[in-house]
Write a structure and sequence with these properties.
With 366 residues, this protein is of the alpha+beta class. The protein has helices at residues 10-13, 46-57, 81-91, 107-114, 127-137, 146-153, 157-166, 172-177, 189-199, 203-210, 217-233, 246-253, 260-271, 282-288, 301-311, 316-320, 357-365; strands at 2-9, 18-20, 24-27, 32-35, 65-69, 75-79, 117-124, 333-337, 352-356. 43% of the residues lie in helices and 13% in strands. It has a seven-stranded mixed beta sheet with strand order 1-7-5-6-4-3-2. The chain is elongated.
């Protein structure tokens, strides 16, 4: 990858600065895409924004920035978007610092800001090289998410379409899924979730494959189908439904038919079960029947000790098999539910037995 360091004045960067909700943010005489459509929205708060201006006014150095050089001679901000928008907005008169806007400064003060030089690396390379480089430089400032890093690499018509649906404040995907998906639309969390679901975890491969598709209809239809299936299968909403990997469950179970009322009855019962410590796991459990999702409460060390003493260290299964060794140290034994939880057994001392590790393992494999 080719990388060159340049000194560029704020005057040059802010030339023909335009901030358009549809087309993004542009500067550098129209040649610099400061906030491409795939990038996140402006996230600096007033304190950070003002700190950028204060740094410039005092002549202190801003952190180095990185631009990607395109084949047509234009550029895109790879790192430094928030700082660039901050000083462009100030020069544009969008805000003031300490009650002084750029237009209220003396001509000397204005020239001092306009002549301030920022250090910019121009980067050229293929998509993979840019992504690797972006990960390396993404170590300071408003740290980018993994999906923002991918967006900076796999630009194109598909991503433009995807961002309009998944990455705007109150976008269609957010309004549809806000009760079921964690994260922020403008930080690309919802887009990342949708991509993770449809790609089975191979997000970069999916984005590379569809980079130049004219739209993102496939992803949007799939995402809607997942959320629709969740709402139809589990019509009673609970806060525990947010953040579950619904895409994986949809892929495995959406073709099956369920008695919705019986599912709800079982979910309500499990919600009241003290042995179920992961209430969010109830939803994948009622579909998969794998108790690992429930994170069932384990016997305490005190309970294990009491039962061990009660049994005098003897494994009852070893006794039944007339083994030569039947007595064990406590660290050679494990606690077991006499009546399994799935059959109604509770994690109580009356339902606990200590087994040697071999027998406990063999029982667990049945």
């Amino acid at each position: 990858m080719k990388i060159e360091l340049h000194e560029i004045t704020i005057r040059e960067v802010s030339e023909n600065y335009v901030d358009n909700a549809e087309e993004g943010v542009v500067g550098y005489g129209g040649k610099l895409n400061i906030r491409p459509k795939y990038q996140r929205e402006f996230v600096y708060d007033e304190k950070k924004r003002n700190a950028v201006i204060d740094t410039i006014v005092k002549g202190f150095p801003l952190n180095v920035m990185y631009w990607v050089k395109n084949d047509d001679g234009t550029y895109e901000v790879l790192d430094g978007q928030q700082r660039t928008i901050s000083f462009c907005q100030y020069i544009n008169g969008d805000f003031s610092v300490n009650s002084r806007g750029f237009g209220n400064l003396t001509r000397t003060e204005q020239i001092q800001i306009l002549d301030y030089k920022v250090l910019v690396y121009f980067c050229e390379g293929n998509d993979r090289e840019k992504l690797d480089w972006f990960k390396i430089i993404n170590i300071a400032g408003e740290k980018l998410t993994d999906q923002e890093l991918r967006n900076a690499t796999y630009t194109g018509t598909w991503l433009t379409s995807a961002k309009s649906i998944f990455s705007k404040t109150n976008c269609a995907a957010y309004l549809l899924s806000k009760n079921y998906v964690n994260g922020s639309a403008i930080r690309q969390d919802i887009l990342e979730t949708a991509l993770d679901w449809i790609s089975k975890g191979h997000i970069e491969d999916y984005m590379a494959m569809h980079q130049h598709d004219p739209n993102t209809n496939e992803l949007w239809i799939y995402f809607k189908n997942v959320i629709d299936w969740v709402q139809l299968t589990f019509p009673k909403y609970r806060k525990e439904m947010k953040g579950i990997n619904w895409g994986e469950l949809y892929d495995q179970f959406h073709a099956q038919t369920y008695d919705i009322s019986k599912l709800e009855e079982e979910i309500a019962k499990l919600m009241l079960d003290d042995d179920v410590t992961n209430k969010r796991g109830i939803y994948p459990y009622v579909l998969t029947r794998n108790p690992k999702h429930l994170n069932l409460r384990a016997f305490s060390e005190s309970q294990k000790r009491q039962v061990y003493e009660r049994q005098q260290g003897i494994c009852p299964h070893c006794v039944q098999e007339h083994r030569e060794k039947t007595r064990y140290e406590i660290n050679e034994m494990e606690a077991d539910h006499i009546t399994p939880w799935i059959e109604g057994g509770k994690t109580s001392i009356d339902n606990c037995q200590m087994l040697c590790k071999e027998h406990n393992r063999r029982k667990g494999e049945k």
